[in-house]
């Protein structure tokens, strides 16, 4: 699967933008989760949040990567078909494979949090400043 960003700085910015865009959901998630498991590391909480929210970090990049994935998966078949049949073939691929493709992308995103955990953890902590105990 493709990476959501070209380097760790881009990845960090994507992650920060994602959590900022979903800050209220992030805060509610952490509040709920800390009530059940108060000692879970913040980076682990962030990965669980990404999986639960099930939204790509960057939707345009996700759609571009999905289109490329479809093109590669159906390349030989698409060349032989007229446009209307291509649309049907792509629609069928999406019906059968889109969710598993999205699931894989979301899991990859969760793994990417580890790639820049030291850089994003302070940002994530600031978004939760009034929710976390001082020693966390």
Question: Can you offer a commentary on this structure?
Answer:
The protein is mainly alpha-helical and 136 residues long. It is 78% helix and 0% strand. The longest helix has 33 residues, at 83-115. The two termini are 34 Å apart.
Question: Portion of residues in helices?
Answer: over 70%
| N-to-C series of helices and strands | HHHHHH
Mean pLDDT, to the nearest integer, reads 86
- Tell me about the largest β-sheet: none
Rg is 18 Å
Summed up:
This protein has 136 residues and is mostly helical. Helices cover 78% and strands 0% of the residues. Helix 1 (8-21) packs parallel to helix 6 (117-127).
In terms of topology, how is this protein built?
Blueprint: H1 8-21, H2 23-36, H3 42-53, H4 59-80, H5 83-115, H6 117-127
Helix pairs in contact: 1-6, 2-3, 3-5, 4-5
